[in-house]
Amino acid sequence: MSDDFTTTTLHGRTCHLYQQNTAHTFPRLPVFYWGISRGNKDAVMTVVSYLKTHQPKAGFLLAAYESESWNDDFSPWAAQAVFGTEAFGGKGEDTFEWLTACCMPFVERGMCEIARFPVGYSLAGLFSLWVYCKCELFAGVVSCSASLWYEGWLEYVQKQSMKVRENKSMYHYMSLGDKEHQTKNKRMAAVRDCTKETYALLCGHQPHQRDILEWNHGGHFAEPDLRIAKGIDWILRQFEV
Predict the structure, then answer these.
(1) What is the DSSP letter of 11?
(2) What whole-number distance in Å separates Cα of residue 200 and Cα of residue 180?
(3) pLDDT tens-digit readout, 28-84
(4) pTM above threshold 0.85
(5) Which domain holds residue 217?
(6) For position 43, which CATH number holds?
């Protein structure tokens, strides 16, 4: 099949799969693993529609998996609440284990050479960078409006940056709204500086890297689906099979 959209349940988690031109022969097939909130299938359809329009000839696979508890599933370690009373449970390791032990083997069955990219927005954008930095399974990352103000994040990425930069091939897409730092919450107001520092640590150091930090217009909740779609589109345009 050239185009296909299905929804399945993998060990208790809902996963939406979109395949485009995967029947064609590619030396390496890009596979995007996108963490989304529960019941957010509409966002997936929006991104799929965008990619079908802007990348009709590209071959790729998109696996959008739903979280059960956003603050828990996408937080790499436990942290106190920064707004309201809901803290961060730090169950990102469980999500990573499910991703690598359950989701990837199912999605990639029968495939030969692939290039994986974690994708995420907001806290899931933090998670996508975290899993990218913690292992060598991924060829790059799409991280949009990520919660890089998260307690302990900069210390973590500083420790991991040298190892990340030594990878042979990397594609980094990061983006942030130009008004996201305009908030009364002191921790969240640091997102602009934290994003710049993260980008400086991970990106632009080696000739084999392809990186961009894109500034979108608006705040955190302005067109999140479009921002994700633009990130995946950028990777597909840069990607060399």
Answers:
(1) T
(2) 19
(3) 899 999 999 999 999 999 999 999 999 999 999 999 999 999 999 999 999 999 877
(4) yes
(5) 3-238
(6) 3.40.50.1820
Which neighbouring-strand residues pair with 173?
142, 212
Mean pLDDT of all residues belonging to the chain: 92
Residue 231 near residue 144 (C-beta atoms within 8 A): yes
177 is written with which tokens?
């709204």
Dihedral of CA 33/215/238/223: which sign? Answer: positive
**Total number of domains in the chain:** 1
| Cβ-based neighbour number of residue 27 at 10 Å | 9
Which tokens is 59 given?
Answer: 């071959």
Nearest to 125 by CA among 102, 141, 103: 141
Amino acid type, 140: G
Q: What does the DSSP assignment read for 136-177?
A: S--SEEEEES--TTSTTHHHHHHHHHHHHHTSS-EEEEEEEE
